[in-house]
Amino acid sequence: MNDTLLSNANAVVRLDAITIEIANTKSLKQTHKRVVTILNKKGDSHSDIHVYYDDKINVKNLGALVYNKFGKEIHRFKSGDFKDMAAVSSFSLYEDSRIKYLNYIPTEYPYTIEFYYETETSNTAWIPFWRPLHGYHISTEKSTYDIVYNTSVGISKKQKNFAGFNIKDRSKEGLLSYVAENLSAMALEESSPDLKSISPVLMIAPKNFHYEGFIGENEDWENLGKWINENLLTGRSYLPEETKQQVRALVQGIDDPIGKARKIYKYVQENTRYISVQVGIGGIQPISASEVDRVKYGDCKGLTNYTKALLEAVGVVSYYTEVYATSSKKIDMDENFPSLFGQANHVILNIPIENKESVWLECTSQIMPFGFLGDFTDDRNVFVITPEGGKIISTPKYGASENSQSTKAELNIMDDSSLEVHAKIISKGIQYNDKFYLENEERREQDKYFKNHWNYIGNISIDEIKFSNDKDNVAFTQDVSFKAIDFCSFTGERILFTPNVLNRNTYIPNRYRTRKLPLQIERGFIDDDEYEINLPQGYTVEFIPENVSLESNFGSYTVTIERITDTKLKYERKFEITGGFYPKEEYEKYREFIKEVSKNDNAKIVLTKL
After folding, report:
1. Which end of the chain has fewer CB atoms surrounding its CB within 10 Å, N or C?
2. Phi and psi at residue 93, in whole multiples of 5°?
3. What pairing do the DSSP bridges indicate for beta strands 11-24 and 138-149?
4. Are the C-beta atoms of residues 14 and 36 closer than 8 Å to each other?
5. CB pairs under 8 A, 24+ apart, for 61-64?
6. E-strand spans in 489-583?
């Protein structure tokens, strides 16, 4: 093995060989062999010894071999050794969605796993994209990708991020063939982009395909959307008359489509539950609305289609929308590469409003506010499917001013070095998304959250917690009172304390001698803090830190401390971060900015005894 493959690696893919044969639009066979050496415990997740399937996918020649560090075979597993179970247990609508997997527990490192299988299906719409690098901290010795196809089917392809990687294209008429060799592991750096956005990927789509009895074409997004609507969605919106009458009664007297949609969304939240179904099984055609209405559960496709059908029953137009959902990093669908599969893993609902911005609904959540997407599907290109055709548009972006947190508090500094706090914290946008779940937690978990959030204080005793969840305005209010002993430090007759009690930045980004990856600040935000600080009797202020004003490409930071009376101070802080991509050369400037913020957040006031 090339030594460079071991650098930054927890695992090394020795061979990843995918061969696909497409004889015609109704025949797709895939052979997959993967050999990976796991170097340490962190690499265990890269063993990937599983295959999903359903009643349209036949799995055969399934097996695995395990080798020790000397290359000696120590285990051999046949198909019968794999566990075979429903991917979504106890839910009859998805009993055909299954997984075969092997739960191998190693006894030593390194070890090597060879995993292989074949699949056959008559659905040719889904051809897996090729990604020769599988993640951060995993290298690839050799990866091959071959598609032998009937020219009447045709193949569309698009290469991304190939530059700088050892990848060769060996394709010819009727054969698409690529090989990648000796791709070093990429180390995950702080605030680095999602690997999918910077590593090589070969996007593939058949020009002509068969899916669930229908023949289609990947011509463009418009025609693909029209095909999906006519073949996969039409006829799936039937509802029992009793349900129609029930929801029509709910919206009686309401003419505004948004007002109607609010009622329907609440009805769905109160009467259904979400079941997660792995992408790749269960297909893309939703369960019929009547079935969801009967059993009261569904996956994202089923619940979105059900909500769409209910809205249709009360005269509100809405559109089924495919999206790549992820809360960690935003991923767009490629507007220049139409493909039925490979670019989406979730479904949401779009409600067009004349002369206004669209309303978007996350139909799988029982607690999400109406019209709020949160960080799971915000600010990315999505595929909206209408009767007239499909189109790529963007979901709402929550800017820094919308992702706000406003804190007002009264702080009482006691002469025994303890602290009493009464705080009101109002969070909006993505900051709302990060906290509103707390109202449904047990008190013990709520206490744990605040003690962890303010762990730099220590010795906290929570006296009172109150929450107010304003879903109409997407604002979450936390009213918290607590005490902390030994908050201040004594030096002779002096008391030292840090005035930024509730929103202190204590973390400084890692330093890199040679930064390899660009900097991505996923979302911007604004924090406003205002505290009244009551000083203990018998003490006066000896030292107050100077006011601070910092400006950078990444945001701004200001702090002012004002003496109101001899025993009262006013502390004001505003911290804004600007989201975006920045070149790797900017990372150190970002680090220095955050470091300066942290220094001033931890600055101390000095009191002296009268």
Report:
1. C
2. -65, -20
3. parallel
4. yes
5. 61/116, 61/117, 61/118, 62/100, 62/116, 62/117, 62/118, 63/115, 63/116, 63/117, 64/102, 64/104, 64/113, 64/114, 64/115, 64/116
6. 489-491, 494-497, 519-521, 525-534, 539-543, 548-552, 555-565, 568-577, 580-582
Distance of alpha carbon 346 from the chain centroid: 11
- pLDDT tens, residue by residue, 392-417: 999 999 999 999 999 999 999 998 99
- Tokens found for residue 554: 């990444």
Residue type, 265: Y
DSSP 3-state of 222: helix
Q: Could you tell me the CA-to-CA distances from 183 to 53, 166, 167, 288 in Å, in that order?
A: 30, 7, 9, 45
Instruction: Count CB-CB contacts under 10 A for residue 246.
Output: 15
Dihedral sign for Cα atoms in the order 40, 45, 48, 50:
positive
- The pLDDT-based confidence of 94 (bands split at 50, 70, 90) is low
289: β partners: none
Give the integer Cα–Cα distance in Å for 359 and 378.
12
pLDDT at 279: 56
Instruction: Report the percentage of the chain scoring pLDDT > 70.
Output: 98
Q: What is the dihedral of CA 287, 333, 189, 449, to 10 degrees?
A: -40
Q: Look up residue 215 and give its two tokens.
A: 């023949």
pTM of this structure = 0.91
For every residue of 10-36, DSSP letters joined together read SEEEEEEEEEEEEEETTEEEEEEEEEE
| Rounded Cα gap, residues 493 and 499, in angstroms | 19
For the chain, the residue count is 610
**DSSP summary character for residue 452:** H
Helix-strand-coil split of the chain, %, nearest 5: 20, 40, 40
Residue 490, classified by CB atoms within 10 Å of its CB into exposed (0-12), middle (13-18) or buried (19+), is exposed
Q: Summarize pLDDT for 485-531 with one digit per residue, the tens.
A: 989 998 888 999 999 999 999 989 999 999 999 999 999 999 999 99
Largest CA distance in the chain: 92
50-55-61-63 Cα dihedral, nearest 10 degrees: 20
Q: 36 to each of 101, 504, 512, 546, how far by Cα in Å?
A: 16, 44, 29, 57
Supply 165's token pair.
């990687």
Calpha distance 483→69 (Å, rounded): 56
